[in-house]
Amino acid sequence: WNTNRPAGSEVAYATDAYWQANQTYSDTQGVAGELTTEHEVRLTGLEPATTYHFQVQSVDEFDLEGLSTDNTFETKSRLPQILDIQLLKVEETSATLAWSTDLPASGAVEYENLATGEVRSEGSPESLTTHTVRLSDLTLGTTYVAQIRSTNEQGDSTLSDPLTFTTVLDEEPPLISKVTNESTLFPGAETRIQTIVDWETDELATCQMFFRQGIQESVEPFALDEKEDPSTEHVQVVVEFQPA
Fold first, then answer.
1. Which runs of consecutive H residues, i.e. helices, occur in the chain?
2. Helices (runs of H) and strands (runs of E) counted in the chain
3. Alpha carbons 9 and 27: distance in angstroms, whole number
4. 28 within 8 A of 12, measured Cβ to Cβ
5. Other Cβ atoms within 10 Å of 128 Cβ, number
C-alpha cells in the first residue's frame, strides 16, 4: 500500500474465528521504524486454507496513525506430495499404478496413447493417503505416458513427473490387496465364531483361501473350496475357527 507521507509499515491480522469472537486482531507483523511511502509486508507462519481479517497500519514521525478498513484474504491449502510411485503391473490391455500422499487427497492417472495421441483419465474422487488405479482398455504393444494428479479437499492439485510404459503379454499373477477380516461371536450352549474375510485382485481371478490354527508353519493348512467364478472382489465366510 502507499501513504501520502513517510510512515512505518505494519499489518494487524487474525483468523476469522478469532475476529468473530473478539472483533480485534491477534497478531502484528511489519516494521514500524522504517519510514517510507511505499509499503510491503510479508506475513509468515499462517495456517493453510484459512480466512484471515487484516488491517494495514502506518505511523509517521509525529506518531499520527493511518489505518485501512478491515479486509480479508484466504490462504491456499497445502498441496499433497505424491510419494512412492510404483508401476505395479503391466498387462496386454491394462496397467496398475500405486502411490501415496502425505495428506488425504483424491487421485487420478492422466495418460496418453503415444501412437494415437488419445488422452484419458482414470481415478477416484475419494480422499485417501494410499492410492491404486488400474488403467483398462489399453492397446497391446503400445507405449503410454502417464502422470498422477492428486487433489486436496480444497481443490488444489499436484502433478507428478511423467511415467512411460508399454503394454505387454500378461505373465504376472494377480495382485491381492485390501485384505480385511471381521469375526462375530455367537454365544450359547456351544459358542460359535463366524469370520468374514474379503479382498480384491487387480484383475479377474479365481481365489482359494487357506488357514491353519496357530502360527506354526509345520501345521498343514486347511483349504476352503476354490471360488470358480473369476472376479476382482472376493469374500469368504469361515465358521471353522475356534474362540480365542
1. 16-22
2. 1, 16
3. 14
4. yes
5. 14
CA angle 198, 125, 200 (to 5 degrees): 15
Q: What is the structure's pLDDT at 138?
A: 95
Cell numbers 494410499 correspond to: 130
Q: Which of 224, 219, 193, 222 is nearest to 208 (CA)?
A: 224
The alpha carbon torsion through 14, 103, 133, 205 (nearest 10 deg) reads -140
Classify each residue of 55-89 as buried b or exposed e, where b means 16 or more C-beta atoms within 10 Å of its C-beta.
bbbbbeeeeeeeeeeeeeeeeeeebbebeeeeeeb
Q: How many residues does the chain have?
A: 244
d(CA 120, CA 53): 42
pTM exceeding 0.90: no
Grid cell, residue 113, equals: 496413447
Give the whole-angstrom CA distance, residue 236 versus residue 7: 75
> pLDDT band at 204, cuts 50/70/90?
confident
